[in-house]
Amino acid sequence: MAATVGGSGSSVGGSDDLLTICAISLVAAIIANVVHEGLGHAVTALLTGTQSGVLTTVAWSSDFDSRLVAAGGTLANLAAGVIFWFALRRLAGASVRLRYFLLISLAFNLFTGTGYFFFSGVTNFGDWALVIAGLQAHWLWRTLLVVVGIVAYYGAVLVVGTGLVRYVGVARDDARRLWKLTLIPYLSATLLVCAGGLLNPLGIQLVWQSALPGTAGADSGLLWLKYYIPKDAIPERGSERIGRSYGWIAAAVALSLVFVFVLGRGITLHN
């Protein structure tokens, strides 16, 4: 019989609740998306010259653009990743659900932030392609983006893998649980962002040009990070399973509906 941890909704035995894992992942994915498109691109544009624009789940569109606006999404995700990392370390004694939320938020933000360097360098498309557009020795800048992207993404994988073991308490040799706690967020985020992109007013092509690369591609580290978890990563506390939380589930449903049917259709913002 599983022994419950008083009031935390977690358990020492049993299995992690799939619905709650999915709910936590959806909330984390929405936050990472809004950080990128909203805080990164939209707020930067509104603060640096544009009068209005349309914010959707897949893009920010306005009559004003700059290298800073293009870079803003990635920089915002990286800054958010740092914040979530410090929060995860400081709140190591919080409930396992909160720690898992911080870990998945860390993953989504770091993977999106670092993955964009590599993506733009290889495809010459996306935010960082706009940042380096028109610069001399363009091939060199693209090469630099690829190299920086590979190194930074690998570093992000090590950070997320370490956090999953050390602060969430997943054993390195528990392959089944590692797979469950990484595959579900990957699939949840990919499906959500694609669904949110279907209604966007800027064109359905942005779903496979932006939404899919930004989730299925950037977050792919979740699928293989288990092979690169540092050997010195040791859980700081006993293993706790993620129990059912109707609060997280309700929040995920509400936020997902707003994300898909409100933000997905586009919101006009004015300075």
Quick description:
With 271 residues, the chain is mainly alpha-helical.
Helical residues, percent: 55-70%
Largest sheet: 3 strands, antiparallel
Question: Uncertain runs with pLDDT below 50, 5 residues or more?
Answer: 1-8
The number of helical segments is 9
| Termini separation | 58 Å
What topology emerges from the helices and strands here?
Blueprint: E1 10-11, H1 18-48, E2 52-55, E3 60-62, H2 67-90, H3 96-123, H4 127-132, H5 138-166, H6 175-197, H7 205-217, H8 221-224, E4 241-242, H9 246-263, E5 267-270
Antiparallel strand pairs: 1-4, 2-3, 2-5
Written overview of the protein:
With 271 residues, the protein is mainly α. The protein has one domain. It is 65% helix and 6% strand. The chain contains 9 helices and 5 strands. The protein has helices at 18-48, 67-90, 96-123, 127-132, 138-166, 175-197, 205-217, 221-224, 246-263; strands spanning 10-11, 52-55, 60-62, 241-242, 267-270. A 3-stranded antiparallel sheet has the order 3-2-5, covered by helices on one side. A two-stranded antiparallel ribbon has the order 1-4. A hairpin with a 4-residue loop joins strand 2 and strand 3. Helix 1 packs across helix 6, helix 2 (67-90) runs antiparallel to helix 3 and helix 6 runs antiparallel to helix 7 (205-217). The longest helix has 31 residues, at 18-48. The N and C termini lie far apart (58 Å).
